[in-house]
């Protein structure tokens, strides 16, 4: 088999280069290319299979592609009631809307459903996200589970053999019964795949109904004392050590590239959001409607009064006739 030339070794697919620059995921970059938003050396391209080198001029929406950023990783304590997506067609609140301004374009490593809380890893490197999501990587995901019902440790031990639920096969699961309180039990569950609703579906086979699910660890990264709704960046040296040389090489992580300061307005536009004067917060009741309040699990009537609520509202005249004017009495 002939060896690759030096030019071939230095070239990468255009979608991968765009993702490495932190502008979009590979899938989004392929969509942009098909829509004619990307040009190479002055020519609009339509195929994501094009290989480019450092000498090529890449333009996205008429602007030069920015330099590649350093690989960064953030730990986020996801609250309950947020969807792990950039935009939701049903209009539900998303976690990327709750993040502070001025961050690079981040993507989640795996997902947590709307009713699951706890540790979520966010990164600006699509290659790192893809590698850490692979089942072959085998990073352990640990959860604290509160469920309605009763179960024995013997029944939990049988999960170590794996099982199939509704045609979906789950790999061995480690589960420990921590304690029983009232009608609920508390468990510690560890999985290595993270399939959709895996913990909930497996617990249902044991007659348990999960009513609270908290991810406390993902591989070597732990939730620890990170408060609900808060974000913490992992220092570069710590990230390099915890990933290890094998995963870092497989993901082609770059720890030597410079850190790029992001403009608040531009970073918000990447998520399709409008810049605001201040951080709206996650649970700001003034900005939450009845539907969102129901999803987040608290009463809409308990919201803080707005300025309009404090003012006296004039009574509306529901009839078409003009409101009669009464003389003022002293």
List keywords for this structure.
single chain; 330 residues; Structural Genomics Hypothetical 15.5 Kd Protein In mrcA-pckA Intergenic Region, Chain A; Pseudouridine synthase; 4-stranded antiparallel beta sheet
Write the SSE topology.
Layout: H1 6-10, E1 12-13, H2 14-20, H3 26-34, E2 38-40, E3 43-44, E4 51-52, E5 58-60, E6 63-64, E7 73-78, H4 95-98, E8 107-108, E9 116-123, H5 126-133, E10 141-148, H6 153-157, E11 163-165, E12 168-170, E13 174-181, E14 184-191, H7 198-205, E15 209-218, E16 221-222, E17 231-233, H8 236-251, H9 264-270, H10 290-296, H11 307-310
Parallel strand pairs: 9-15
Antiparallel strand pairs: 1-4, 2-3, 2-5, 5-6, 7-9, 7-17, 8-9, 10-14, 10-15, 11-12, 13-14, 15-16
Describe this structure in words.
This protein is of the alpha+beta class and 330 residues long. It folds into two domains: 6-64, RNA-binding S4 domain (Structural Genomics Hypothetical 15.5 Kd Protein In mrcA-pckA Intergenic Region, Chain A), CATH 3.10.290.10; 73-251, 2-Layer Sandwich (Pseudouridine synthase), CATH 3.30.2350. It has eleven helices and 17 strands.
């Amino acid at each position: 088999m002939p060896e690759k030339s030096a030019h071939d070794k230095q070239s990468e697919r255009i979608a991968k280069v765009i993702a490495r620059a932190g502008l979009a995921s590979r899938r989004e970059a392929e969509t942009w290319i098909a829509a004619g938003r990307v040009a190479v050396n002055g020519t609009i391209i339509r195929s994501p299979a094009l290989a480019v080198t450092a000498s090529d001029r890449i333009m996205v929406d008429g602007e030069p592609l920015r330099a590649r950023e350093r690989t960064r990783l953030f730990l986020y304590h996801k609250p309950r009631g947020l969807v792990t997506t950039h935009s939701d067609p049903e209009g539900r609140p998303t976690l990327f809307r709750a993040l502070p301004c001025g961050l690079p374009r981040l993507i989640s490593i795996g997902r947590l459903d709307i009713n699951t809380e706890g540790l979520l890893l966010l990164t600006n490197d699509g290659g790192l996200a893809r590698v850490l999501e692979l089942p072959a990587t085998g990073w352990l995901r640990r959860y604290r589970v509160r469920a309605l019902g009763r179960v024995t440790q013997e029944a939990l031990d049988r999960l170590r053999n794996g099982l199939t639920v509704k045609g979906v096969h789950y790999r061995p699961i480690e589960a420990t019964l921590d304690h029983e309180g009232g009608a609920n039990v508390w468990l510690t569950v560890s999985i290595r795949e993270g399939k959709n609703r895996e913990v909930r579906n497996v617990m249902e086979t044991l007659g348990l109904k999960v009513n609270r699910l908290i991810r406390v660890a993902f591989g070597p990264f732990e939730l620890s004392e990170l408060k609900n709704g808060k974000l913490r960046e992992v220092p570069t040296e710590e990230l390099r050590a915890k990933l290890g040389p094998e995963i870092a090489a497989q993901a082609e992580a770059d720890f030597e590239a410079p850190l790029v300061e992001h403009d608040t307005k531009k970073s918000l536009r990447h998520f399709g959001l409008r810049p605001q004067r201040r951080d709206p917060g996650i649970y700001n009741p003034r900005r939450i409607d009845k539907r969102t309040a129901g999803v987040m699990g608290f009463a809409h009537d308990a919201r803080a009064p707005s300025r309009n609520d404090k003012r006296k509202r004039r009574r509306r005249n529901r009839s078409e006739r003009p409101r009669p004017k009464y003389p003022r009495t002293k």
